[in-house]
Amino acid sequence: MTVEHPADAATSDEARQPTAIDATAEQWVTTLADNNPTLATYIGLDNGKLGEWDDFSPAGHERLADAARAVIAELNTQEPTDDVDWVTKADLIETLQLHIEQHELGLHLRDVNVIASPVQGIREIFDIMPTANEKDWSDVASRLNGIPAAIDGYVESLRLGISRGIVPAARQVREVILQARTTADPTGLFAELVSGAEGLSSGLTSDLGKGGAISAEAYAKLADFFENELLPVAGDADAVGRDIYSVASRSFLGATVDLDETYEWGIEELQRMVDEQTSIANEIKPGATVEEAIEFLNKDESRKLHGTDALQKWMQETSDHAIEELGKTHFDIPAEIRTLECMIAPSHTGIIYYTGPTDDFSRPGRMWWSVPEGVTEFDTWRELTTVYHEGVPGHHLQISQAVYNRKTLNSYRRLLAGSSGHAEGWALYAERLMEELGYLNDPADRLGMLDGQRMRAARVVLDIGVHLGKQRPDGQGPWTGDYAFEFMGKNVNMNPEFVRFEVNRYLGWPGQAPSYKVGQRIWEQIRDEYKAREGASFSPKDFHKKALDLGGVGLDTLKAALLK
After folding, report:
1. Among 2, 49, 8, CA closest to 542
2. How many domains would you assign to the chain?
3. Per residue in 248-257, pLDDT tens?
């Protein structure tokens, strides 16, 4: 039998016939969506549960872990029929095994952090829930009224963690108390959400009003639980240690790396970014330091945007131009994914993020900017590379291409598979690619790109350094959470509030922040090895298409699929 390479299969005009492994992967998508209805919202799967909540209780977590074990057992009885199957089986087993390892470590029993725990997830799902008709608003009302029970399940898991001595760091708990108190404002986010409902039946309007009120009350009770029960027993140390960190790193990268070697590489990479920035600063203003060049650019009114309306318009115009131009020359961009909506998020966390399209593209991919309260000015030189990172050729091209590729890939591969290292590594790779393609010829725009790259390199050093208790780069003893704030402040040109949020994020979400820069490193290593193998016939456009046509995978799987 001739075994077809997955990238070659993806380029075929004929739909690939689903296999037994595809069926197992499809069933896993259904199982996940049934157990985690918010996931169904994210991927646009109407499974009749779009008004329901994930089960955050210990029983819910155990049920999902048992389901993962059953899928692994089933996959182990199945033989791949082609390389598409091989990738699905290898990557799904690895993903599920990591899920089980995390479950057995009890990480769900200490799941409190400033950016990616149920505290934020329960609130943020409403950002992307549709509100076009009465049915949509009915789902919103159902979810709002279900928040107290969802939070009860979450608290049950945290209480079990307390009883077992598996608790989050006190720093994270204190920060999340502030977030929960903000969400609990009776005139805040939930009230604003329901105020947007118009022309609905009186009964539904009443349900929405009630749901908004009890949702705010539930967050107030959650904040009380954090303050009165969890904070007194929370851990003093920010570091999670090598055992937890190793599993977290593998989960975010989809690859196993030598953490000690990666730490040393991070130090070298950070210095390389500093040197490159210093050189470009001299181009912007002869003899200027990096800080002086940034000060010079920050005073340039021609590079400023005033207000979120201007920011949104600039984001959209920049994104549309990139899609139009790159679609002519460097990438095959199907019509379905040429729409990217640039949005100002209703929250004010300061993060910029991307949400993928629904399976049928009825909701397009979206780039979101969550602008902090009081911020009204934006520097285009600093943010141009961000649009490329979140849009095209970054996340939007990467994720939407996988969704589009239904002729070859099952729903798991198109909608759910992947890792932070694959996604964020590609997005940083895309930033550098735009420099190579001439889209960052202005030294100011290149300095902005390097400012982000320097921050990502610093995060490798900080994240591994803190959580593994490594020696500080300055030789002044081991890393501590407090030193992390000082270190980050020296390596980003951002306000203290940004630094505070970012460092708290790293301390509470171990392994995630390095996945950007380490992921970029692995993407570049794979490309260079692929290029060496192909020799004179190497085509960057063909390489990118083959890689992206695989959909989201772990980086070890990506390397095996492209280089084996």
Report:
1. 8
2. 2
3. 999 999 999 9
The answer on 313 and 177 residing in a single domain is no
Whose structure tokens read 């690939």?
16
Judgement on whether residues 43 and 177 belong to the same structural domain of the protein: yes
Q: Are strands 365-369 and 352-355 parallel, antiparallel or unpaired?
A: antiparallel
Asked if residue 393 has a cis previous peptide bond (ω within 30° of 0), the answer is yes
Q: Which domain holds residue 381?
A: 249-516
**Same domain (yes/no): 300, 400:** yes
Question: Which pair of tokens denotes residue 457?
Answer: 């390199």
Within 10 angstroms of residue 406's Cβ, the number of other Cβ atoms is 16
The percentage of residues in the chain with a pLDDT greater than 70, rounded to a whole number, is 98
Q: How many residues does the chain have?
A: 564
The DSSP element (H or E) to which 379 belongs, if any, is strand 377-379
The rounded distance, in Å, linking the Cα atoms of 223 and 246 is: 31
Residue 551: partners with Cβ closer than 8 Å, 6 or more residues away: 402, 405, 409, 413, 414, 417, 418
Euclidean distance between CA atoms 181 and 216, whole angstroms: 9
Q: Are 309 and 187 found together in one domain?
A: no
Domain identity same for 269 and 204: no
Domain shared by 346 and 453, yes or no = yes
The span from the CA of 543 to the CA of 533, in Å, is: 12
Residue 536 lies in a domain: no
Over 70: is that where the pLDDT of 13 sits? no
- What confidence category does residue 44 fall into, taking pLDDT thresholds of 50, 70 and 90? confident
Question: Are the C-beta atoms of 362 and 373 separated by less than 8 Å?
Answer: no
- The verdict on 273 and 223 lying in the same domain is no
What is the C-alpha to C-alpha distance for residues 342 and 395, in angstroms, rounded to an integer? 13
Report, as an integer, the average pLDDT of 233-244. Answer: 96
54-108 confidence digits (pLDDT tens): 999 999 999 999 999 999 999 999 999 999 999 999 999 999 999 999 999 999 9
pLDDT attached to residue 2: 28
The pLDDT, as a whole number, for residue 349 is 75
**CA–CA separation, 206 and 197 (whole Å):** 11
Q: Mark which of 479, 497, 516 sits at the end of a domain.
A: 516
Helix ranges (DSSP H) in 367-442: 380-390, 395-404, 411, 420-436
Listed residue (454, 450, 432) closest to 281, CA to CA: 450
Contacts of 255 (CB under 8 A, 6+ apart): 419, 421, 522, 554, 555, 556, 559
Mean pLDDT for the chain overall:
93
> Which pair of structure tokens corresponds to residue 198?
């118009």
